[in-house]
Amino acid sequence: MKRRGFLKKIPVAATASVVLNGLSVGLLAKGQLQQVAATSTNDKVLVLIQLHGGNDGLNAVIPIDQYAQYFNLRPNIAIPDNGSRGYIPLDSTLDVADQVGLHPDMVGTKTLYDQGKAAIVQGVSYENHNGSHFRSRDIMFMGGDYDDYMGSGWMGRYLDYCFPNYPDAYPSNEMPDPLGLEIGTTVSLAFHRDNGIPVAVAANDPEGFFDLINSTGGLPPESVIDTHYGKELQWIMDIEANSNQYADRLKEVFDNGSNTPSVTYPETYPLSANRLNNPLSPQLKLIARMLSGGSKTKIFLARIGGFDTHGNQVESYDPTLGNHAALLYHISAAVEAFQKDLQGLGLEDRVVAATFSEFGRRATSNASYGTDHGNAQPMFVYGKAVKPGIIGTNPDLLNLDGNNIPMQIDYRQVFTTILSDWMEASDEAMVQTLFDGFLDKKLDLFSNLITSTRDDFIAKRFKLNSIYPNPVLDRTTFSYYINTPVRVDLELFDTGGRKIRSLVSGQQTVGEHSLTFDLSDLKPGTYVYRIKAGPLNAAKKLIKI
């Protein structure tokens, strides 16, 4: 292919991209995400998930303590507080002001929370929020205030500071991969430097990308004139050369990678909705496969659209169904599968994922069974390294600002925390990123003692208590606490591992459970009683006399 043909394949405002397994993947170019790990000594990975359109956080994270007011504000779309499609109580151990219910289709998020692998950040926005999709998205991508206008993004500035020698020194033996990949055809403003000019190349599969890149060469101009056009042409030539460098590597990593055979990524929403197909699953599946194939890429950006729910957010006959329900299912189910996949691949310790949207939606519903552009939103942060829990409190629904959910936490606090505490960015890098003003406002999202923190979190929410009395003469009482409706199996074994008796087997409700059994027929000796309930798998000793 001649250069003229190559240039015809460059859409406006796009950047270098490829297609792997049918998904377009952007190569974050010069001064952008490829530079994220060259000076890093860790192998940590960040996966960002953009919820395009403005997510209605109030139907995703429902304030239980203010349910009556919540229902009054949006009676035609409110999630019920009971029944088989009622909200899912997240955590009964939290303070009353923090008690929330998840949308009934967010079972995956609830499961990850119970496993100590999810956190929710309430009320995320910025001062004087803008209700325009494009402007608000730009503000969050550039990492600025409501009145800032910049041609660079927060990640581009951060990476430009950390890796000023890219692309001359890359790829290298230590860092052979493009260090940032965006699933899609364009690279977002977040990844741009001030002088970045985006371009794009697309193919239908890894082999197709490899073949396309190998056909886009041609003799470059002997010289490039010193004009704006000349600089753009030089940039395009640089991107073409950069794509050539990474073509073989991307194909190699994809071909070498695999997913955990026992993990199935959900493909469709199991109930009724227009948005049946899950667009996030193949993106996360591809990311897991690339990492398993040896990719050292540091930051991935996935995207799921459809959140601009002015109308038909829910079905008129059932507020728990509809487009928004399907989208929340797609996120929760896909991320749960992603976490299982990473665990099976031995990669779970390396990856953190976080969702974000350009804004939330208003507390009040409209007559079209939808919601209009609003202010604050909840962000979800997932991963084994996450300190589980809720940051922030439920919004005060009696004191709204023009029917908007008020801001509690600036979005830059979340991104600063992720870059500083997870990616281990230096304070100097945060100055260059323009996030230094938030270093003293970081959130408690990560723990240095990951395993003990998660185990302690689970132990407070799922507990097998000691029986009483013990030793047992005839009757004794078993008790346990579970933080979510779950199947409970409580069984009694002898010291040889032979099951003697099934004490409990079936679905149980949230709360403390206490049951007394007559064990007078047991022979004297030592036994073990064991419980399996969600993340709880525990055993204790019983002495029969």
Question: How does this structure look, described?
Answer:
The chain is globular and about 95 Å long. Helix 7 crosses helix 8. The protein has two domains: 3-454, no CATH class; 462-544, Immunoglobulin-like (Sandwich). The chain is of the alpha+beta class and 545 residues long. The protein has helices at residues 3-8, 67-73, 107-114, 133-142, 154-162, 206-215, 228-256, 281-292, 323-345, 411-422, 427-433, 450-461, and strands at 17-20, 23-27, 45-51, 61-63, 88-89, 100-102, 118-125, 180-183, 299-304, 351-357, 361-365, 371-373, 377-382, 389-391, 409-410, 463-464, 475-482, 486-494, 499-508, 511-518, 525-533, 536-544. Strands 1, 2, 3, 7, 8, 9, 10, 13, 14 and 15 form a ten-stranded mixed β-sheet that branches. The chain has a four-stranded antiparallel β-sheet with strand order 19-18-21-22, with no helix packed on it. A three-stranded antiparallel β-sheet has the order 4-6-5, with helices on one face.
